[in-house]
Specification:
34 strands; Calcineurin-like_PHP; hydrolase activity; 11 helices; alpha+beta; elongated; six-stranded mixed beta sheet; Ig-like_fold; signal
Length: 598
């Protein structure tokens, strides 16, 4: 007797105004079409739906789990007589890693509270359920979770006779061109915030068709502590045009678990493994759980010994000609929390050693900010805490779907402004990949064209900032933010450009009133210094919204450029044309008009 486990569940003109921020203007970038990829019939009509096939019964050997990975030609999730096993496919119990033999068979050591999963190989796709959540795993917890508020895992009983993993052939995952979407911190605390997410990033993703092969990986803080919201938040994945995978964050914990081995049981029951890997094109995605929590203590960024052993074993199976995408909730290292060990990963040096010599990029969430850190970038905190003098490869913090925890004014699109800690706006990250070369693309919620914010940082603004920093959410609006007095010019006024995906290697140039084009200066050089924090280093366009309407304060950023305006500018109206060029040579041009008053 057998059963299948089906886990239920624009372009704007360059001078257009995107958001009026207390009178300041956040100017959208010129629209760029989403890159094309292998095109197919609509996802909803063609998605491979099914589940892992668990053959019931008491296995003869309760210390060994076996099964088959097979090509599911008729998409019924069961290996029929004419369906061959697939050789050389990686299967793991979360510690040991093996590959299937010539008949698609595998064997793995079994132990209580393990999750067994298959690593999707290139040219195949695992099934998805009706909510588009990828089905590639089986939990083994004979007695089930201890009593937990949100349920955890139901008892699985003895080890089954077999756990078989169906795969369907896929041209989408065979293609060397992939578009991998990374969604950070959906973090819904209530049903209203589920609707904000629906109207925002999920509606945007529903309108896109370029990510069906790689899918979307949601990298933690799927909900905000209330795990009863998993079904509502999970249902949003049904809007996608590709498979959805999830990672846990520090707000996805069973806080009432008394031992660390059960702190993610409800997440696992509802969404999938704590960590895993999958292949698509010439990309190997490694999804890590970087949150460690022991009952009665604060969480910290770490991998336990078992996960670290699995990572070594998993990477050892990956051909050298693959790009490794390392996805995690708490980033390996980041700018926003560069002086705080618990918000970065303790084993970062060990991870670097495992990936030594590999083409790699790390993506993370958690910080509710956008960061694009390149090879060689360095900060004082990394050196002091971890002994890291420079990054060995690109590290990107994806920003949050929730932005700044759904704070701020409610916009016409049906979601709040939610401007983040760095002045960035909510959205999702896409890695556009050809073979092993990638380009990162940040797509702003509600307007994929939006790439930067322009503002003026004048003495009058800095005085307002100092007077109202303690009044966050109730400060009076900063009047006439695009008007600068002659006195302010003499006291130092900067034209600021917050280029959200800007990084080392990016440039920002300004042409004032059609005159000579000049380079601006990046405020944070990432050459081993510490953070520069305060009004002088802030994003005025973001802060003028945040202090008035609530949320974090963008008082630091690793992607802010500024140009000091000439003290002898004539009275009257002036126009600055700003061109931001990223490390890949893509240029975005915006204009800002301001007035000099006597």
């Amino acid at each position: 007797m057998s059963r299948s486990l089906l886990h239920r569940r624009t372009g704007l003109a360059a001078t257009a105004v995107a958001i009026a921020v207390s009178g300041a203007t956040l100017v959208p970038a010129a629209a760029t079409a989403a890159p094309g990829g292998p095109q197919a019939a609509p996802w909803a009509e063609t998605a491979y739906r099914g589940g892992v096939h668990v053959v019931e019964g008491t296995g003869e050997d309760q210390d060994v789990l076996d099964g088959t990975v097979f090509a599911d030609k008729n998409h019924n999730s069961v290996q029929d007589q004419n369906e061959q096993g697939l050789a050389g496919v990686t299967v793991s119990n979360g510690r040991d890693v093996t590959t299937t033999d010539s008949h698609g068979r595998y064997e793995l050591p079994a132990f209580d509270n393990m999750t067994v999963f298959v690593t999707q190989p290139r040219g195949y796709q695992v099934p998805v359920d009706e909510d588009n959540v990828a089905q590639f795993f089986y939990h083994h917890l004979p007695e089930g979770s201890p009593e937990l508020r949100y349920g955890g895992i139901e008892p699985t009983g003895p080890l089954p006779d077999e756990v078989n993993f169906p795969l369907a052939k896929s041209q989408l995952t065979q293609s060397p061109e992939q578009h991998c979407v990374i969604g950070g911190d959906i973090q819904t605390y209530n049903e209203q915030e589920v609707e904000y997410a629906r109207a925002g990033a999920f509606a945007d993703l529903a309108a896109r068709t370029d990510y069906a092969g790689c899918g979307v990986t949601f990298i933690g803080d799927v909900v905000g502590d209330d795990l009863s919201l998993y079904p509502q938040t999970r249902e949003l994945a049904g809007m996608l045009n590709g498979p959805a995978r999830f990672l846990p964050g520090n707000h996805d914990l069973d806080f009432d678990a008394t031992t660390s081995e059960h702190t993610f049981d409800t997440f696992r029951a509802q969404l999938g493994p704590e960590y895993y890997s999958y292949g698509t094109g010439k990309v190997h995605v490694v999804a890590l759980n970087t949150v460690e929590y022991r009952a009665g203590t604060a969480y910290t960024g770490a991998l336990d010994d078992q996960q670290l052993e699995w990572l070594r074993n998993d990477i050892a199976q990956v051909p050298e000609d693959r790009l490794i995408v390392l996805a995690a909730h708490i980033p390996l290292l980041d700018y926003a929390d560069q002086g705080a060990a618990r918000h970065q990963v303790a084993q970062v040096q060990e991870i670097y050693e495992i990936l030594e010599g590999r083409e790699a990029v790390a993506v993370g969430g958690h910080t509710h900010s956008i960061e694009n850190l390149r090879e060689g970038d360095s900060l004082a905190g990394w050196s002091q805490l971890f002994g890291v003098e420079g990054l060995p490869f690109t590290h990107i913090t994806s920003g949050a779907i929730s932005g700044d925890w759904y704070s701020g004014r409610l916009l016409d699109g049906g979601y709040p402004t939610a401007i983040q800690r760095d002045g960035g706006v909510p959205g999702v990250l896409t890695l556009d990949i050809k073979n092993t070369t990638f380009q990162e693309r940040f797509t702003v919620r509600g307007d994929g064209a939006h790439q930067m914010a322009l503002g003026l940082n004048a003495p009058r603004y800095r005085e307002w900032y100092a007077a109202n920093l303690a009044n966050r959410g109730s400060a009076p609006a900063f009047e006439n933010p695009l008007a600068v007095s002659r006195e302010d010019l003499a006291g130092g006024t900067w034209l600021t450009t917050n280029f959200w995906m800007g990084s080392t290697g990016s440039t920002v140039q300004v042409t004032l009133d059609g005159g000579q084009t000049v380079e601006t200066v990046r405020t944070q050089q990432l050459q081993g210094e510490g953070q520069l924090v305060g009004a002088e280093w802030s994003d005025p366009a973001a802060v003028q919204e945040q202090l008035v309407h609530g949320g974090s304060v963008a008082d630091r950023s690793m992607h802010l450029w500024r140009l000091e305006l000439p003290a002898d500018l004539a009275a009257g109206e002036h126009t600055a044309e700003v061109t931001a060029t990223d490390v890949h040579g893509r240029a975005f041009t915006e204009t800002i008009t301001f007035e000099i008053t006597e």
